[in-house]
Amino acid sequence: MFRTNTCGELRLADAGKKVTLAGWVQRVRKMGGMTFLDLRDRYGITQVVFEQTSDSALNEAANHLGREYVVQVTGTVAERESKNAKNPTGDIEIIADSLRVLNPSEVPPFTIEDESDGGDDLRMKFRYLDLRRNPVRRNLELRHRMTMETRRYLDSKGFLEIETPMLVGSTPEGARDFVVPSRMNPGQFYALPQSPQTLKQLLMVSGMDRYFQIVKCFRDEDLRADRQPEFTQIDCEMSFIEQNDVLELFEGMAKHLFKEIRGIELTEPFIRMPWADAMKYYGSDKPDLRFGMKFVEVDDILKGHGFSVFDNAAYIGGIVAKGAAGYTRKQLDALTDFVKRPQIGAKGLVYARVAEDGSVKSSVDKFYDQETLKALAAKMQAEPGDLILIMSGDDVMRTRKQLCELRLEMGRQLGLRDKNKFACLWVVDFPMFEWSDEEQRLMAMHHPFTHPKDEDIPLLDTDPAAVRADAYDMVINGVEVGGGSIRIHDAALQAKMFEILGFTPEKAQEQFGFLMNAFKYGAPPHGGLAYGLDRWVSLFAGLDSIRDCIAFPKNNSGRDVMLDAPAALDQKQLDELCLELAPEKEEK
Amino acid sequence: MFRTNTCGELRLADAGKKVTLAGWVQRVRKMGGMTFLDLRDRYGITQVVFEQTSDSALNEAANHLGREYVVQVTGTVAERESKNAKNPTGDIEIIADSLRVLNPSEVPPFTIEDESDGGDDLRMKFRYLDLRRNPVRRNLELRHRMTMETRRYLDSKGFLEIETPMLVGSTPEGARDFVVPSRMNPGQFYALPQSPQTLKQLLMVSGMDRYFQIVKCFRDEDLRADRQPEFTQIDCEMSFIEQNDVLELFEGMAKHLFKEIRGIELTEPFIRMPWADAMKYYGSDKPDLRFGMKFVEVDDILKGHGFSVFDNAAYIGGIVAKGAAGYTRKQLDALTDFVKRPQIGAKGLVYARVAEDGSVKSSVDKFYDQETLKALAAKMQAEPGDLILIMSGDDVMRTRKQLCELRLEMGRQLGLRDKNKFACLWVVDFPMFEWSDEEQRLMAMHHPFTHPKDEDIPLLDTDPAAVRADAYDMVINGVEVGGGSIRIHDAALQAKMFEILGFTPEKAQEQFGFLMNAFKYGAPPHGGLAYGLDRWVSLFAGLDSIRDCIAFPKNNSGRDVMLDAPAALDQKQLDELCLELAPEKEEK
Question: Which of A107, A262, B84, B503 is 20 to 30 Å from B496 at the Cα level?
């Protein structure tokens, strides 16, 4: 037996016990005739003492231990003289009487501490050492607990976890697929699933009633900080339900997770905000409701005063930053620069400070008299000491999105985006379609199987762009953690949908034939949703990037720098797959 | 709301309640003025009655329902006159007062009954309909419960489920990889993991202490009935353990699953049978211990009597089939044909019947006197009424394997392989190496990281072929459900292992460099195992093939006939991946 106890479990009540521990050398300190070893494992750190007077050879051996050596120590638990209240094992220490080096270690390339001196690249290359650090390990522990609790909740609600295949067919619609050449079917390829969407719908046709799966999905997209080529979804689908059933059940799951994982009891129902309101008041389909700063549209007040920027704008709206009237000119210039950055692309920013006496001082005073500015402050419910920030533009939606960026930045600057506070809502009633300039046609905003709202079905013939869908997103702190929809189960409605999306019946059959055929044999009403597990764990862990809740993530070029993958194949492997590398790329 | 209850939950106590059910039409029977509808969902079948006298239009509508229509029925729960004790809802029926067709259905291509009239090909093409059948659905429910209980057990033992990547590097050693071309790294490929073996070892280096994952793995091998290109593993690894710790913990898991899933309490410790004994007594490293028929070696008795087949044999051994002395000549000839089939390849079979008076009558009586035959019967503990079956050959191991096939066939014929009886054991002390005629060198039987038994380490220098490993398999009813080993954590021992396996240090570095480098930084002693989930579920479900516990399996050509995958790619996709199809294969 390698150990009687872990390095995290011994307490004062264990004093006097003979124990054996095993773990890694966190550090060794020599103090007079004593050597102190901090022994670490996943469960904690226990202090081990080697006394020179009682066994000088043993003490000498301890002095030669290096950082990250793997050792086994036997000794007696004793009460510490100077206790460490910060460490759960801090009341005791082990008086060692034997020491065995199980494995030595080279000096690690960075320190195994909460705040490491390793840069990102080094940490990723030696990820197995990075994972020894408490903050990274804790993220994986959190992830484990979240998936356990998710499964426990869904199982208690009658959901079956059913594995769908990883080697499926490629669908040209949607994002780019990763593909897998088939050796047994030369010239043909599998695709890795972007999501089990169609398969879970088939499971509803098969009467599985309630399905879920925590499953890897794949998208071959150019990567950003919060994207990975492979990611994990909590994928769910239910039959014989309406939108409200889905929202209630999964709101219950979110509350269960908040309670079990974060110890937060959310008692209020989640707000259900129509997409149109989310855009109007927050300029985003995933508003961060940890703070207010709701948009106020002020065209009525600010137009017609000779300020041509506003007079010609299609949209004028603003936010009130409470108590920020003290912002300096320099701070305000920085905000202007912020909204003018190419990523945001606004032309500028108008501000107005509300003084203690109620007077309003703006950056466009020469166009507006005090009466108008006071009317502005009144409409925006700005009070003395507040800062008003106004943006305008000739494209309503684009300007709202710019104002959204400003709102989020002000929320950040004013400390209103506390990572330990959570604001959850459902965004509902998404538009069914969005216009694609590239394709010059309406595209499905969610996917072509999304059910339109019953009351909007007549609009499919007259004004399809105005049709709203039974589609919904769960948003927490400005992050879309999940989303889904009620699906069409009626063949005639599905055919009409394909027609609006510009599919010929032949093309629809070619791309979605297997699903449409299945629907001929008694498809039940159904719907569901999918959560991005990586994002949700990041949110619970308070991380800025999803990478630190993934054991072995890939970098922005899709590379695993630890494994050094992808890599060239042996010619033999290519031959077996009947593949050749295209000549023009072989130089690369 | 689509339903107040499922089709499986109403009981006599619900009589008088107004309910709404939804589901599929299992069948409709018209009897006089009544129409009976069996309404089915995942949870059961409920009988619905439409009375012509009370609502003739409604009754007429019910008469027009086809099989597999999806309908919603509202009515009142009533006690049935003629109850059906076989159906949990058989005490009640619903007196319908409204009926709504949610979706019609074409006539399904095969019957949705426990015993379907659909052949394998049709069932696979319309798998979504096949899954509506009780026996198939129950397999998926069993699979769900097994994974839930596996996770619950491992979580309770401190294991963390950690997801390892699906896009990894290709390793030329081992089985053939499925590969994934990288668009962002042209000319380079990821591989899909054959198992997370090296990654879980890295997680041990990272101090995760106890890891598990229920995870898809991939092998591009030619397929057999019990192989799928993608399969699911319960993959586990632990640190600071010895072999006994692993066996005890996972024996506990098996017992937990037997109890929770099958209601079987296994109280005895699993037998731990050395590999050498398994081969000697059962001719197999996965003996089926539901029945005896242990091999008895009888060279000492049967050699030297002038029967040249035996006199020249390297091995003579037999089994006793209890009570099978009545086997006819025809049955015995069939057994001889059985062992002579090319898959088994034996030259023949000698039999001897023990008569009621204790006399022995054999097929080789002209070589053996009664005294010798009685000595044979005595050594084999054959009793009156028993049948002795003897095989011989010039290759000991090959003959044992042939005798194993005969033993299993006799077990089958005598009804000793009851699918509801379970015999579990550990096979331990596997050989470290096996000789490869193809490669003309020793190969690792398990993998190159397997730890040799401590007491055999000296043999590495003198007689490597005799070295036994700390490797173990869990065997249930002749099926290897899982296996694993203690891993080498010592760099010098690992180097010696590579040397014996014929790796130059450079080649070892090239293929396993990332793992060997990791081991320089303090690898703990560790080991683990992996279970084949598909096989284990099949065993619990009493299935002959793993396919029926997989929602969407592939056929023997690796095709998903429902999705029609794999398939040709668009040229655009090939171009993006910088790939060309090899010309000689393009005609295919």
Answer: A107
3-state secondary structure A225-287: CCCCCEEEEEEEEEECCCHHHHHHHHHHHHHHHHHHHHCCCCCCCCEEEEHHHHHHHHCCCCC
Which residues of chain A make contact with B576, given a CB cutoff of 8 A?
A: 176
Q: Look at residue A423 and give its three-state secondary structure.
A: coil
Q: Do A131 and B203 touch (CB under 8 A)?
A: yes
Which residue is closest to A25 within chain B, CA to CA? B522
Q: Which of B105, B184, B228, B547 to mutate to test the interface with A (most CBs of A within 10 A)?
A: B184
Residues in A touching B128 (Cβ below 8 Å): 202-203, 205-206, 518, 521
Is the CB of A132 less than 8 angstroms away from the CB of B183? no
Of A132, A161, A514, Cβ closest to residue B207: A132
Residue B390 CA to residue B368 CA, distance in Å, equals 14
Please report where in the chains the tokens 């992996």 appear, as a residue: B530
Min Cα–Cα distance to chain A from B355, Å: 55
ipTM for the complex shown: 0.95
Q: What is the pLDDT of residues B418-447, one digit of tens each?
A: 999 999 999 999 999 998 888 888 888 888
∠ CA A498-A501-A506, nearest 5°, is 45
Strands (E), B179-229: 179-181, 189-191, 210-218
Residue B303, SS3 per DSSP: coil
pLDDT digits (tens, 9 = 90+) for A248-264: 999 999 999 999 999 99
Q: Which domains does chain B have, with CATH numbers?
A: 12-103 (2.40.50.140), 138-272+424-549 (3.30.930.10), 291-413 (3.30.1360.30)
pLDDT digits (tens, 9 = 90+) for B355-394: 999 999 999 999 999 999 999 999 999 999 999 999 999 9
A110 touches chain B (CB under 8 A): no
Selecting from B166, B209, B585 the residue whose C-beta is nearest the C-beta of A216 gives B166
CA distance A168 to A196: 10
Calculate what percentage of chain A has a pLDDT beyond 70: 98
For the residues B479-505, what does the mean pLDDT come to? 92
> Is A569–B170 a contact, with Cβ atoms under 8 angstroms apart?
yes
Contact A144 B160 (CB under 8 A): yes
Omega before B287 within 30 of 0, i.e. cis = no
- The DSSP code for B469 is B
B551 vs A147, A189, A203: nearest CB: A203
Tell how many helices (H) and how many strands (E) occur in chain B: 18, 23
B172 pLDDT band, cuts 50/70/90, is: low
Q: Which residues of B touch A161 (CB under 8 A)?
A: 144, 147-148
Q: Which residue of A has its CA nearest to B130?
A: A206
Specify the amino acid at residue A382: A
CA distance A112 to A52: 28
Rounded CA-CA distance A192/A196 in Å is 10
pLDDT digits (tens, 9 = 90+) for B233-257: 999 999 999 999 999 999 999 999 9
| Confidence category of residue A172, pLDDT binned at 50, 70, 90 | low
Under DSSP, the state recorded for A313 is: -
Residue A66 contacts residue A82 (beta carbons within 8 Å): no
Cα–Cα distance for residue pair B457/B446, rounded to 1 Å: 17
> Is the CB of residue A183 less than 8 Å away from at least one CB of chain B?
yes
Does any CB of chain A come closer than 8 Å to the CB of residue B564?
A: yes
C-beta atoms of B588 and A104 within 8 A: no
Q: pTM to 2 decimals?
A: 0.95
Residues of B in contact with A562 (CB under 8 A): 202, 514
CA A112 to chain CA mean position, Å = 26
pLDDT per residue over B9-30, tens digit each? 999 999 999 999 999 999 999 9
